[in-house]
Input
Amino acid sequence: MSPLSPIKPTEEAPVSPPRVLQWPLDPLLTLAVLGLGIASVVTLGAATRDLVPGQPHYYVDRQAIYLLVGALFMLTLSRLDYARLRQWKNGIYALLMFTILAVLGLGHTARGSQRAISLPFFSFQASELGKVLLILALSAFVVDRARRLRERDTTVRVMLAALVPAMFVIAQPDLGSGMVYVMVGLTLLFVAGTSWKHLTGLLALGVISLTFVLVAAPAAGVHVLKPYQVARLTAFLHPTTNAQKEGYQQEESKIAIGAGQKTGRGSSANQTKLNFVPEDHTDFIFAAVGEQYGFLGAGLVLCLYALLIWRALRILVMAKDLFGSLVAGGVAAMLMFQVFVNVGMTIGIMPITGVTLPLMSYGGSSVITTLLAVGLLQSIYVQARASAALKGRVPLY
Amino acid sequence: MSTPLERVQPSDPRTTPVSPQLALRVAVLGGIAMVMFAIIFFRLWFLQVLSGEQYVQQANANDVRPLPIPAPRGQIFDRTGQPIVSSRTTNAVQIVPSALPPAGAPRLAVYRRLGALLGMRAGHIEELVIAGRNAVKYAPVTIKTDAGPGVLTVLAERQNEFPGVVQEPVSIRAYPFGEMAAQVLGYVGQVSKGELKKRAFQGVKQGTVVGQEGLEYYYDRYLRGRQGVRRVEVNAAGYPTPSSLKAIQPLAGHSLRVTLDLGLQREGERALLEGIERARAGGKPATAGAFTAIDPSNGEVLAMGSYPTFNPNKFAKPLTQAEYNALKGATSSSGEEAPAPLTNRAANGTYPTGSTFKPITAMGALEGGVINPGEALGAGQCIHVSTQQFCNSGHAEYGALDLVNALRVSSDTYFFETGELANSHGNVIQETARKLGIGEQTGIDLPSEITGIVPDRRWREHENQLQRECEHKQHSKPCGIVAEIRPWSVGDNMHLAVGQGDLITSPLQMAVAYSTLANAYMHNGYGTVVTPHLGMEIDEAKGGLVQSLSFPPVRHVHLNYSDLSLVMEGIHDAASQPGGTSFEVWSGWDQAQHPVYGKTGTAQHGTLNSGFTEDQSWYMCYVGDRSQIGQQRPIVIAVTVEKGGFGAETAAPIARLMASQWFGKPKRFVAGSSKTL
Output
């Protein structure tokens, strides 16, 4: 026993962790996830009963399996130390690029877009998983350059690292996921502490390029986005002028949600059930929620999302290290962006971009990816609690 | 030990608690989230709570579509209760427009496949779909009714090759006796845009099948019932989905009992056809004809028919334009106008009557004191008035005859002379003709009938005036209202006296006039101008009486009984005494039990200028009934065959066949040889 020996936590200050420390998971975060999973299955049960003839539970069964598999991934991740992933950043980034390119090369085409690789049980949408991979890889890059955040070089590199996969994903075309990538990049820089000057510059650049893509380039005959994407992006600005085309889905979705009134239409929720709102089990599932369960149900689901996002931001602050904070920030950005854009699209205040509603929308890639992201949050939470306990600080929620 | 706790190592620069900068930025993120949630909540509140009602309505308009359930149309029964018009259920091939493949090549392919199966052109199917979709939104469009079991099996088995094509049981109008009484019964069809505006079709919805002609039209508001509404939930593709929405059941139409006698009607049509065939065999064109039989005491129409005819069952399915034109009687390629099968010649034929008018002339002349019935008139072959001569048919010479014998042999010279004499007494013939029911609408319960013309001085003046005005307006172009502007002449009155000239009437009006004579004769000169009618009573679909239809007589008339007796004696002799124009036709008839008062007529059409056309064969008769009181079934029969020759050879035998049927006598077609007009 050397007198110079550092802190000896085990003997002199025995850790007597408060009982809450025994929680293996963030209870509120878990509650939100559980609630959303149940809401998804219940909503799908009613909305998809007649979608596959003779198999009323087709979608419900599959979604339940995806949720269970995702939950297993989440639990596994929560037991691991996320910090290890930082070392594998290059491998993770390489995996991200590989899967995205593989989709472009091998993927099968669904409704005119090539987004997924058919696996035996499952068609794998690389762009979904890519969200988590990108969050991890970018967070690691940013941590590496934490001391050079003021440099323009850092900002440019991080944004490029986000934009390159985003471009490939948009080319699939999956505009929604591409925008999530860009959003994740921006949020990571923001959380890490990039200067306001750089952020403002990025914002200005974004506005200019958006104007270019949506207005200037089509006018000049160059279609950066496919014309239907541009039409969809701008349709929400004038929904009634083209109610039969791009505006149709959104208009029908608004009718569905509005018709739900305070407490919903229950079994007579025909707008979504009879397929007036296309994709009411995937991208437009919020319309099904709104119609079936009304303001009450939709409000409850939104509260669960608020809880989820609040926990993500809380875990951001709790994290034991910058990497954890950034990963949590990235996940929070992903969730916020997807929830706002998706819900906004169903209620007619956001363009239609094909962004899924995390955990609610039917689809294995989306559900499992989101649960992986939640698993990371859980891991950060657990590690933060452990670290705080180690330092004798009172753990925070 | 390798618990997670022990493996924790500070691995990045941040070892201190949250920096103020991070706190600020997280707060900004949280702020953004809060603002966005607030926006979403506000928007949801606006959509669901504030404008919810409006969206509920929009949603219902989206998926609940009212589809009409056609009401079963009421049946039509003859006077004895036998169904003569009913409805039957068959399968119709329909297209659900919203469930068709997208417009363009895929949809056209479906049209082509279906067209090949149904024997229709793809273009025609497309037209039907477009027209149908414009008529009733969302409702399936009927492409073919009664397509046959083979077609339906193919459609059922190969459903996926015919997206949007469905079969639906539909009720269609059935006329089990086919062409029988077609013009009287009429036909049905979907209500047209123009008809919807008419008062008769008030409250009728687009797409409803309504009566288009005849009794089907006249009694449509009783027969059609009230259509029900099925509220169908459809999905976004427009396919109906099972739902529990309550339907409003249709109300079946009332049934109509008519005065027609099925047996007499069928015999009349058969006899008319036989007469026409015989006339044709005799080298006459006999292009068209008509008959009607009414009860002289109350105007009940016992039979009414017209040739050429059509099968109203054809209208139960969509007709092509060419088929319709043929029925309408469009001019054929040879330039000669074909007789229109849709025309009911018994009520709408516009004919001079020939000698069948003579009893009316006689009645008028007697009433007006123009002639003395015992006075012999009409000696010689012809009557000469100024430069014109008026001759007997075939320049026959009957000698001077009294009224009764003049009617018996149908002496034209007698009636020419009567017409000449009457001209100086004003309009005595015309007034009597009008009094008896000629030259006015009879009031029959059919959608249309002619008014007719009984020409007199005022009429002539009026026509002249029209001609002058027309010529003034059109300058040199011909107007054709009258051949030449000239005053009324004695010749006009003489022509009218034998039922020629400008006289225009219909077999139905003649039947009414003869009925008036007959019932006045039965009641000592006190007669009624009956309203001929077909409707008897309206019954509920299940049988209960709704309403008895009553048709009060048009007016009561009083004829001098002794004058009337002489006229009736004259036409009775014509049918029963040797030398009578239809004596041969009625040979072997029991005149004691069923005395026949009949008059032949041979109406001449056109003038010498317009070329020769065959004469129109006419026969009018009243057959009395001397059976026990209470079982009497007197009947007035009117028969005419256009271009059928002399009255005795074609029309009269048809009337005899009908009378035989009515009184249950053996039927014989006996052609007479009388060549009188």
